[in-house]
Automatic annotation (TrEMBL):
InterPro entries: DIOX_N (IPR026992), IPNS-like_FE2OG_OXY (IPR044861), IPNS-like_sf (IPR027443), Oxoglu/Fe-dep_dioxygenase_dom (IPR005123), Plant_2OG-oxidoreductases (IPR050295). Keywords: Dioxygenase, Iron, Metal-binding, Oxidoreductase. This is Fe2OG dioxygenase domain-containing protein. It comes from the Eukaryota. SUPFAM superfamilies: Clavaminate synthase-like. Residues 127-228 form the Fe2OG dioxygenase domain. Belongs to the iron/ascorbate-dependent oxidoreductase family. One of its GO terms (molecular function) is dioxygenase activity. The keyword Signal does not apply. Pfam families: 2OG-FeII_Oxy, DIOX_N.
């Protein structure tokens, strides 16, 4: 399954701790302070929301999240929360470091596919970067709900910083078995998203994952999403389609994909299935 721990990521343990601490501090603010940021409109560049996709789902999930656009920083940081006071500085620093890490990983993935190191980065264009600070409160009936339902990430690559003390993330192995991805000291988790599956013509799979909740402890995670620029044209790289074969996926812009992802019905299968075949 395409979910991996990375240890030698070069981001200091101290910074990771600060990110987790300030994230938790944010969710501990009084509800009336946080309510100013509430929105369920997915296109907003900063918003506090709840569950997964409140406009589409019939069953809600046990999660609150703060979603931020993070690149270019100068454009978005002014609108970020200034309470807690250290939020902007700590999260900006982390965003820069995590972006560099993500770009390095995309380089390694390109090489791994037999492409030039900067191939995928070039295809994805000036990538956006989004962050979800996920807060899963203690849940009195954890077997009746999820923190996040089964999904794949619609973007290219996700780097996840997880609560070091509380488990919750699970990934689907071989389409059949849910495996816990428990926190490891100082490790980040990397999940491949739908766009790498499309570009690689299915050689890499975006990972099905979900988050479970528990009655004893709250849990925090910080997901950083590298996203193709909206106008990027995504489709299987010609070199990765076997001789005489048809590409599995058609070409589309990321803008088209992202809109489809958030507007489709959630009981549908993999969003990429809607982009198969020629066009
Ligand atoms: C996400 C996600 C998992 C987690 O934010 O897309 O999958 O463990 N988070 O919080
Ligand atoms: Ni996810």
């Amino acid at each position: 399954h395409s979910s991996h721990y990375i240890i030698n990521h070069g981001i200091s343990e101290e910074l990771l701790e600060k990110v987790m601490a300030v994230g938790l501090e944010f969710f501990r603010l009084p509800p009336e302070e946080k309510a100013k940021l509430y929105s369920d409109e997915p296109s907003k560049k900063i918003r506090l929301s709840t569950s997964f996709n409140v406009r589409k789902e019939t069953v809600h999930n046990w999660r609150d999240y703060l979603r931020l656009h993070c690149h270019p920083l100068e454009e978005f940081v002014p609108d970020w929360p200034s309470n807690p006071e250290t939020f902007k500085e700590i999260i900006s620093t982390y965003c820069c470091e995590v972006r560099l890490l993500g770009l390095r990983l995309l380089g390694a993935i390109s090489l791994g596919l037999g492409l030039e190191e900067d191939y995928i980065e070039n295809v994805l264009g000036e990538q956006e970067q989004h962050m979800a600070v996920n807060y899963y409160p203690r849940c009195p009936k954890p077997d009746l709900t999820y923190g996040l339902p089964k999904h794949t990430d619609p973007n290219a690559l996700t780097i996840l910083l997880m609560d070091p003390h509380v488990s919750g993330l699970q990934v689907l192995k071989d389409g059949a078995q849910w495996i816990a991805v428990d926190p490891r000291p100082n490790a980040l988790v990397v999940n491949l998203g739908d766009q790498l599956q499309a570009l690689s013509n299915g050689a890499y799979k975006s990972v099905w994952h979900r988050a479970v909740v528990n009655a004893a402890r709250e849990r925090l995670s910080v997901a950083s999403f590298l996203c193709p620029c909206n106008s990027a044209v995504i489709g299987p790289v010609a070199k990765l389609v076997g001789d005489g074969d048809e590409p599995v996926y058609r070409s589309y812009t990321y803008d088209e994909y992202y809109k489809k992802f958030w507007s489709r019905n959630l009981d549908q299968d993999h969003c990429l299935e809607l982009f198969t075949g020629q066009k």
